[in-house]
Amino acid sequence: MNVQLSTAQREFVHLATQVIEERHRRSRQGLFKRLYPDADTVQPDGTIIHAREKYKWHLEFFKAGATYRERCFMAANRVGKTQGGGGYETTCHLTGNYPDWWEGRRFSRPISAWVAGKTKETTRDIIQLELMGELSKKPDGRRVFDGTGLIPGNLFGSMSFRSGGSDLLDTVKIKHKSGGWSKLGYKSYEQGRGSFEGTAQHVIWTDEEPPLDV
């Protein structure tokens, strides 16, 4: 059956499609605000984000930051160490947006931070993805993130990428609630000890255990 649509009908279908796609895009964003809810919450895709009270060890880890300069979150795989642990806290500090229940360390001003993984590939495919979301390239060659990671996309500022075409960020500025800009640098252990020397940082998140010299 061949259905002919008028110009007005085609325009309506096009507009409706855009609205649906935009709603879907927005539902994928805002991850940071959805984590650690007061009660179990069903997401648009049917998954469940469990209540904050079920993450006792995560909350203890955050709280310890108010007392200790260095902490280790050692746990089994796939229990939320990257997204719900280091990634969540790093986002809090970069943006200055702390939840009401937060008992850990707080920064009232923009910070400088590093995040680091074993290799540039794991830093890109794990840490960068969790914080920034998916990376895509525009027809004009620009590289953009979709903001589906922990850091809200509307807070992204200027950014630079590593040379060599790895699609790994070097640095990115993140808008802080005070009005200034936090600076986030991406590192990998394979860069060696020298890459981690000489610059003081407010926050350093190493996603996996680093070598002793680092």
Please describe what this structure looks like.
By secondary structure, the chain is α/β, with parallel strands linked by helices. The mean pLDDT is 90. It has five helices and nine strands. 29% of the residues lie in helices and 19% in strands. The strands form three sheets. A five-stranded mixed beta sheet has the order 6-7-8-3-9. Helix 4 (82-95) packs across helix 5 (120-132). It has a domain at 86-206. The radius of gyration is 20 Å and the shape is globular. The chain has helices at residues 7-28, 31-34, 56-64, 82-95, 120-132, and strands at residues 41-42, 48-49, 112-117, 135-137, 143-145, 156-161, 169-175, 181-188, 203-206. The termini are far apart. A hairpin with a 5-residue loop joins strand 7 and strand 8 (181-188).
Query: Are there runs of 5+ residues with pLDDT below 50, and where?
Result: none
- Global structural class: alpha/beta
- Secondary structure tally, helices: 5
> What would you call the shape?
globular
Taking the alpha carbons of the first and last residues, their distance comes to 67 Å
Q: What's the mean pLDDT score?
A: 90
The beta-strand count equals: 9
Largest sheet: 5 strands, mixed
Helix/strand order: HHEEHHEHEEEEEE
**Main sheet strand line-up:** 6-7-8-3-9
| Percent range for β-strand residues | 15-25%
Report the C-alpha radius of gyration, rounded.
20 Å
Describe the SSE topology.
Blueprint: H1 7-28, H2 31-34, E1 41-42, E2 48-49, H3 56-64, H4 82-95, E3 112-117, H5 120-132, E4 135-137, E5 143-145, E6 156-161, E7 169-175, E8 181-188, E9 203-206
Parallel strand pairs: 3-8, 3-9
Antiparallel strand pairs: 1-2, 4-5, 6-7, 7-8
Helix pairs in contact: 4-5
